[in-house]
Amino acid sequence: MIEVNERVDVAAPPEVVWALLSNPHAVVNCVEGAKLGAQNEDGTFDASMVVKFGPAKVTFNTRIGLELDAATRTGNVSARGKDNQGGTRVRATMKFSVVAQEGSTGSSIPITAEVEVGGKLALVVESGASMVVKRMTKDFSEKLAETLANAPVQN
Amino acid sequence: MKVYQRLAQAFKAEGCTDTFGMMGDGNMYWVTELHKIGVKVHEVRHEGAGLGMADGYARVTHQPGVATATCGPGVTQLATGFVTAARAHSPIVAFCGESPTTDEEYTQRLDQAKFADACEAGFVRLVSPDTADDAVRKAFYRAKLESRPIMLSCPMDIQQKNFEDDDEEYKPSSAMFSPGAVHPDEKALERAADIVASSKKPVIIVGRGAQWAGAGEAVLKLADRIGALIATSLMVRTWLNESEWHAGISGTYGSRPSMKLFEEADCVIGVGASLNRYTTEHGYLYPEARYVHIDSEPHLLIAGGKSADCYVQSDARVGVEELEKLLAKRNHKSIGYRTPDVKQKLVNHSADRTEFEMDPGTLDPREACLALDKALPAEIGVLSGSGMTAGFVSMLMTRRRVLSGSGHFFGCIGQMLPAAMGAVVATKKPLVLCDGDASVIMHLAEFETMVRYDMPLLVVVMNNEALGAEYYKLDAHKMDVTTSMITTPDLGKVGVAMGGRGAMVTTVEQFTKAVQEWLKKPGPMMIDMRISRSVPSVPYRRIHYGRDE
User: Fold this and answer.
1) Which of A123, B93, B230, B377 is 20–30 Å from B106 (CA)?
2) What single-letter DSSP state applies at residue B355?
3) What is the pLDDT of residue A155?
4) Angstrom distance (rounded) from CA B135 to CA B173
5) Beta bridge pairs of residue B249
6) pLDDT at A124
7) What tens digit of pLDDT does each residue of B485-540 get?
8) CB distance B149 to B92 below 8 Å
9) In chain B, which residues touch A (CB < 8 A)?
10) What are phi and psi of B312, to 5 degrees?
11) Cβ of B544 and A128 within 8 Å?
């Protein structure tokens, strides 16, 4: 089990951040190698994601569930899927919230996540998988911050 | 004639010229008879090392290596060597004493059949004096047929009985078993040709089976016709790299540029290679490829328990030649990968350019490997162990050599020094072993054996004063790495104390000088090369640190 406990600080105010994070398409755009597919009848989304473990690329086909609570500005994301060869499974849950930063107009986004990689690939990447997930989290944070910095200012 | 004498003569008649092991009262009479009839007995310091030497001998000659141990405690020392040799598919006959059949309370008693089975070795017991010939013949027959170690277990009391038919000539196993080349089935070959002909980016992966079958020229010709990249399994790294389209090792020890090219492959042709999880990274290296698998076994599953899209049971050389002929008949000729852009990507593709700060008093293992590769002529082989340091040797020493090998069969340490010694005995040529400190020290006593037999073997100890693999795994998990660190004495001085030559080096210049000294007069020598722990090998950077290098 890979555990992620990150906090992303951005200059944008909470309402702008929430507007972005509650839009699945905008969020997926912040994840490198991810593509959002069709929405299913149960509200989940199909998505694919290319992950690089060392020089090898692995494409995961996943189903993503999104629960958003606008009142508390919190979200739960769940994802589970297999790679395109069927040898590796991934299961992930993520919780995030958007809170105002004290003393500024910016926002903080605490993120906790648990990612489980099972099957053949887990044997190959060993502890490297944890590093990959953490690197992806960092990339996501940076892309999110960049997207918010370029977001139109709402009055 | 005593049974033990007949047994010794039968071994000689099987072609045995060298044996490796330690004398005890369960095998001492047989060993003495071997001396008497001119079979060389290499007395070692640990029975397991003796088996490792027989393993090295068998890997190089692909003929049965012979090891020996006494009963009970002599046999239990063979455990790791047996499993390693079984995984390496090394044909070996291990002559082992067994406790007397008349004494159930014998101190050194052991259920040797169960032991052999647990160690993945076959088992043949000498059950009576008049079956002595049958037992030896069966042991050699099975070793060659099954390509694994066979324990020939000979109860001490039966060895001492009279052998009555000593006027009869021993009939060796070769009289009953003479393997010929397996020819491919025509339909299977047609299916293989269909897949290859429809491919735009084929990769040929060669393994030990291709090398043993002498398939080199045939592979180069086929590769030229279909525009293939040539890659190897780890075990035959550098083989066929006279081709400018050689992409090095396929798998965990492969270079990044090669992996990017493999990703584009739409067809993989495995030739005498198992295409296991390491060679294909569970198939992830070749996400879009269809597989053609040529091997002499009736059938093999590739990584992930899958079957190739087309399996062709065939001797590697014959199979590749026939496939090439069939494609020629169809007028198939393709550029495949062979473009100037790809050629450029393959220039010095295995270079490791990542910078690290060296620990004080140590050298960069990568620079040392490059210097060693440059200093050693191509006729001197290089073997490496299976620990962390193997990543440097396997990826950076790319010069084509008469012999290049690795020891990853069982993932154990300690077995490559004996294997290298066996290889030296088999080839009678100078050889270099590069292995980690923990691995060499495990069977350090065998350096004295090297000296006794004046073996032209240079042992380069890539010494980071740690259990290297564990050091980096602990580090990646942010745990206490000091628990994996073990200081070592000056192993160069240890080599000298044992009667050989030795040096401790902390710079590439010192290392090169020591290697040059060995080259002037190859003999038993140990170089204690202090390497920096700050440099993990590329495979370790990928696997444990998730780096894309």
Assistant:
1) B93
2) -
3) 43
4) 11
5) B232
6) 63
7) 999 999 999 999 999 999 999 999 999 999 999 999 999 999 999 999 999 999 99
8) yes
9) 252, 256, 259-260, 263, 277, 281-285, 287, 304, 473, 476-477, 542-549
10) -120, 110
11) yes
- Enter the pTM of the model: 0.90
Nearest CB to A54 within list B476, B477, B542: B542
A57–B contact, CB cutoff 8 A: yes
- CB nearest to A131's CB, from B259, B283, B546: B546
Contact B402, B354 (CB under 8 A): no
Please give the order of strands across the beta sheet that includes B310-313. Answer: B246-249, B229-232, B202-206, B267-271, B290-295, B310-313
Token pair belonging to B330? 């169809």
Domains belonging to chain A, first-starting first, are 2-149 (3.30.530.20)
Q: Please say whether the beta carbons of B127 and B134 come within 8 A.
A: no
Looking at the predicted complex, does its ipTM rise above 0.85? Answer: no
Q: How many helices (H) and strands (E) does chain B have?
A: 24, 18
Which domains are delineated in chain B? 3-175 (3.40.50.970), 186-345 (3.40.50.1220), 365-545 (3.40.50.970)
Q: What is the DSSP string of B88-141?
A: TT--EEEEEEE--TT-TT-TT---HHHHHHHTT-EEEE--SGGGHHHHHHHHHH
The distance of A31 to chain B (nearest Cα, Å) reads 18
Q: Which two tokens stand for residue A21?
A: 């994070």
Looking at residue A123, its pLDDT comes to: 65
**How high is the mean pLDDT of chain B?**
96
